[in-house]
Amino acid sequence: MNPHIAPVELAKAYRLLNHGPTVLVSASHAGVDNVMAAAWACALDFAPPKVTVVLDKSTKTRALVEAGGRFVLQVPAARQLALTQAVGNMTLADDPDKLEKCGVTLFRIDGETAPLVEGCAAWLACRLVPEPHNQQTYDLFIGEVEAAWSDTRVFAEGHWHFEQAGPGWRSLHHVAGGHYYAIGEPLDGNAGA
Amino acid sequence: MNPHIAPVELAKAYRLLNHGPTVLVSASHAGVDNVMAAAWACALDFAPPKVTVVLDKSTKTRALVEAGGRFVLQVPAARQLALTQAVGNMTLADDPDKLEKCGVTLFRIDGETAPLVEGCAAWLACRLVPEPHNQQTYDLFIGEVEAAWSDTRVFAEGHWHFEQAGPGWRSLHHVAGGHYYAIGEPLDGNAGA
């Protein structure tokens, strides 16, 4: 495993999503792995940490989450822009070689059954909290974060270090149609007006 | 009213939140107005557009949303950093002059009962979609966006123009404890690897 990957304490896991990055959602069931992109993912609680993510009924990843009961949200880095765009626009249902064509390499960690995407900045391994009404009515899924990790070159000691890590490590923030913004410069809200 | 404010067509309203900005939540009931900051707000659907936002039970704004059934999510700009930090750290329950002390000026638009915060980049006026289980269990509120507006100096023709609008117009992305990032530079996901 990449020696830069280290656990993130659960009390600080929300910080991996708090700034609103577009994420990759991965899941596995019965030997089938898949990864999709999702801009509609959000922190939901601090302790235990929970997240929400919207998974359209057309996605194969959703079926894997429903069947397997687990998923991983990961924060892709700017140098994974093409990969992020590709997994968001190709479906495993039509293209069994989706992951290979999109340049996705998966790995497993610490007995987590859901696969993780190599090269990301951070990962949150989630247990699905079943809420059938939300899932059916709103395509809204809730997960409890049971473990989290970061690449310590960009998130360490509970803090993002985008400004030191180089432009390839910036998080991606999708607007629409393949138009993204990278996260930008730090601002200190405690510095006064 | 600020002559730069123009309606955003509902089909494109999700783009105001899609890149994950920290928002201000405003609401009004029985003559009481309030505004809070929320990093945990997210698009939920395209048509009709819906949003989610997490409103802690300790907040006065939540009580106004529950009583009045409406709220506005607005996207503050970087030059509103101090205001955003202030409304997120002061409560109307303890400080009846909160809004004045935080430098918030409110305005009304088009018969919308919830107040809007002057100087923001965009506004989404929402009708609460009552979901008592989500509200009680997860502090999770769903709104249907019934109208949206932007300041056309930074969002026009369905697109953000952060790169032309100047640094004071960048959206704010809170991580924790008053540490924010501004949104950064555009990246084209359709440009190839």
Automatic annotation (TrEMBL), chains A, B:
MF GO annotations: FMN binding; oxidoreductase activity, acting on the CH-NH group of donors, NAD or NADP as acceptor
Does the entry feature the keyword Protein biosynthesis, yes or no? Answer: no
Q: Domain Flavin reductase like spans what residues?
A: 15-162
Cofactor or coenzyme needed: FMN
Q: Which domain of life is it from?
A: Bacteria
Q: Which UniProt keywords apply?
A: Flavoprotein
Give the family from UniProt. Belongs to the flavoredoxin family.
Its recorded name reads Flavin reductase
